[in-house]
UniProtKB/TrEMBL annotation:
InterPro entries assigned to the protein according to its UniProt record, in alphabetical order: DUF484 (IPR007435), GAF-like_dom_sf (IPR029016)
Ranges annotated as biased composition (Basic and acidic residues): 1-10
Domain of life of the native organism: Bacteria
Region (Disordered): 1-23
UniProt xrefs under PANTHER family: DUF484 DOMAIN-CONTAINING PROTEIN
Keyword terms of this UniProt record: Coiled coil
UniProt key word Coiled coil: yes
Annotated protein name in UniProt: DUF484 domain-containing protein
Coiled-coil residues: 62-89
Pfam families found in the cross-reference section: DUF484
Length: 246
């Protein structure tokens, strides 16, 4: 960066520690000068101990060096805090990835539609703490599941009017989290049978052609609209492949 023409240093230094007079340089000019001459305080090191700044935590004054050290310490603490947050997120993602891996292994081992449902029940209950969930399947995927009696399975015609309430979900073909309408809750989990504070709805198959996986929780904050749905999408892909092979 090119340096600006240097004015007489003695004319600049009073403005740093005292009030500006009308004939002197403006604060902007001083700031620009120091910005373009970053070695200024190396050439005038004595000024660092003479300049005094208000202490950020009281009425006392500190030298510029002390203020810089304090600012760097605060910045370091902020960076450390951010690093801890990133490490916590990474650890949480590792734990979640391990749970999805166990689900995938269970689905691979399933040899029938019945054992597939059992595998899903085990993973969703033990690994994801989901006791309320439903696999809703369209007719083209009913073959292997016909005759199975389970509260976690429902076979429904693709033209059923009840599915209209999920049109926007199917159109997006992406998982959705948050509170659901009473009509959706009652249809999926039963009217007045369980308390559902929030839910995750996961479309299954290409363009949601297989149906959906609904997971409910009594905790209103368990599934919230701002949470990432990437892992739910992966679960949906795994379940879709398993349903197609059942």
């Amino acid at each position: 960066m090119s340096k600006q023409p240097v004015r007489d240093v003695e004319n600049l230094t009073p403005a740093v520690s005292g009030k500006l007079d009308d004939a002197g340089p403006s604060e902007t000019e001083i700031a620009d000068y120091l910005q373009n001459n970053i070695d200024f305080f190396e050439r005038h090191a004595a000024l660092l101990t003479k300049l005094k700044l208000p202490h950020s935590r009281g009425n006392a004054t500190v030298s510029l060096v002390e203020r810089q050290v304090s600012a760097l310490r605060d910045k370091n603490q902020s960076l450390e805090s951010r690093l801890r947050e990133l490490i916590d997120v990474a650890r949480s993602n590792d734990v979640l990835a391990a749970k999805i891996h166990r689900l995938a292994c269970r689905l691979v081992r399933a040899r029938s539609a019945a054992t597939l449902l059992d595998s899903m029940e085990t993973s969703l209950r033990e690994d994801f703490g989901a006791s309320e969930w439903l696999l809703l399947l369209a007719p083209s995927r009913q073959t292997g599941f016909s005759g199975i009696d389970s509260r976690h399975l429902r076979l429904i015609d693709a033209n059923a009017t009840e599915l209209k309430m999920f049109d926007t979900l199917f159109e997006s073909a992406r998982p959705r989290c948050g509170q659901i309408r009473d009509s959706q809750r009652d249809f999926l989990f039963g009217a007045g049978t369980v308390e559902i504070g929030s839910a995750a709805l996961v479309p299954l198959g290409r363009e949601a052609g297989f149906g959906l996986l609904a997971i409910g929780s009594p905790d209103a904050q368990r599934f919230h609209p701002t949470m990432s749905t990437d892992f739910l999408a992966r679960i949906g892909d795994l379940v879709s492949e398993a349903v197609a092979a059942a």
